[in-house]
Amino acid sequence: xxxxxxxxxxxxxxxxxxxxxxxxxxxxxxxxxxxxxxxxxxxxxxxxxxxxxxxxxxxxxxxxxxxxxxxxxxxxxxxxxxxxxxxxxxxxxxxxxxxxxxxxxxxxxxxxxxxxxx
Length: 118
Known about the structure:
Layout: H1 4-12, E1 14-18, E2 25-30, H2 32-35, E3 45-48, H3 52-56, H4 63-82, E4 87-90, H5 108-117
Helix pairs in contact: 1-4
InterPro entries: SGNH_hydro_sf (IPR036514)
Organism: Pseudomonas savastanoi pv. glycinea str. race 4
GO molecular function: hydrolase activity, acting on ester bonds
């Protein structure tokens, strides 16, 4: 899945995904708005979900990086709204510290605090 920076890029510009281990280009395509004349269908429902991969890929390590990721998701919704979208649903990030990957680990409480700041 995408990180919040990739979600924003997939809406506003060029969506490019590179393998973080090898640097190999996995996929690249024109973003939604450039591909559609910078107009969003005002009758469509847009569903945005993000943040989890920012945590899983180690990009959220502080309150400021959590805020940055949240702002990128908010910017994605704003870009769609400014292009004419009227129905935008943004999914809230769950408490990542309570997920099976982190629950009971030494990182659980810190991750819970960061996800609350998202």
